[in-house]
Amino acid sequence: xxxxxxxxxxxxxxxxxxxPVSISALESATRTSTTPGKMQLxxxxxxxxxxxxxxxxxxxxxxxxxxxxxxTLDGITGYGEASMPPYLxxxxxxxxxxxxxxxxxxxxxxxxxxxxxxxxxxxxPNNRAAKASVDIALHDLTGKIMGQPWYKIWGLNPDRTPxxxxxxxxxxDPAEMQRKIEETSPxxxxxxxxxxxxxxxxVEALRRHTDVPICVDANQGWNDREKALEMCHWLAERxxxxxxxxxxxxxxxxxxxxxxxxxxxxxxxxxxxRLPDVSRAAGAYDGINIKLMKSTGMHEAYxxxxxxxxxxxxxxxxxxxxxxxxxSAAAQLSPMxxxxxxxxxxxxxxxxxxxxxxxxxxxxxPDRPGIGAIxxx
Length: 377
Ligand code: MG
Known about the structure:
Layout: H1 11-17, H2 23-33, E1 40-45, E2 48-56, E3 59-64, E4 66-73, E5 76-83, H3 92-101, H4 113-123, H5 128-146, H6 150-153, E6 165-168, H7 174-183, E7 189-193, H8 199-207, E8 214-217, H9 225-236, E9 240-244, H10 252-261, E10 266-268, H11 275-281, E11 287-290, H12 292-295, H13 298-310, E12 314-317, H14 324-331, E13 339-340, E14 353-354, E15 357-359, E16 362-364, E17 374-375
Parallel strand pairs: 6-7, 7-8, 8-9, 9-10, 10-11, 11-12, 12-13
Antiparallel strand pairs: 1-4, 2-3, 4-5, 14-17, 15-16
Helix pairs in contact: 1-2, 3-5, 9-10
The structure holds magnesium ion.
């Protein structure tokens, strides 16, 4: 990759490029290098190392490309992040190219989230993770300016956060499969990745270890609606709460057919990205899985959750593999949702933030301003 694409121009850019400089060192440097009253955006690629290979219905991988973002205004820094699993169509180059085009210094007020989102849409369509990274950093910045975490600003009760699920996928090595299953022990819900050839084997192996509720994510892997229905009945007898994206996102009629007959709620994930997709999902799905990297960040995610609830749909809050930066941002919304799948930071080996925690299986939002994530030195 072209080194030029790593960084926005300016002193902070040079500091970001000069690895290894700790983020806290960058933050203190930032305080003396920014122009008063002007927002300054900087960013750098940061590859996430997965603790275990992800075996999904349609792919396998051991890393996720990411980009870390900072927006600084008058000595206060907001942190954001883009995570780009390959199937979403963004990568380090597309994200850094998009961020390089942005001129946030034109906005005198970081609270103008609507205006800034409108501006980002005018710069380029799509680029949802790139836009999310800016949105998260702006929420962190504005929350810090107000001295409040976003769950408070939204009026949410932090005691009402759900349990999070912890995700496992199939492994052909029985010892490795057993180790993955034992790793689920601290969690109150286990999310099982399905859509491969060993769907029932994973559940049977898990059930020899634990009775905790499971949820299932088929990642569009079930091609036949009759078989999908049979799986839903089989899973309903094994303490499964819902099934996420059972069939191809384009198979709306088959999904609606399945939903009418399934004993389990059917939740849309790959089918849906942003706010206008919520009403499209109604009828074929019982609920939606909101992820910040799909929704362009917290601003639209909040709107999606509000709309889905008003339409009587279930709301799930998911994530990509992310550091505790983006996970803490998502956690701010978690008191609004029925189910959370916020294990992205638990699945990586190189987290660089402290933030939202899982305690006894439940999401705990840090009582800190902004998104509540602080960089580890
Ligand atoms: Mg999913």
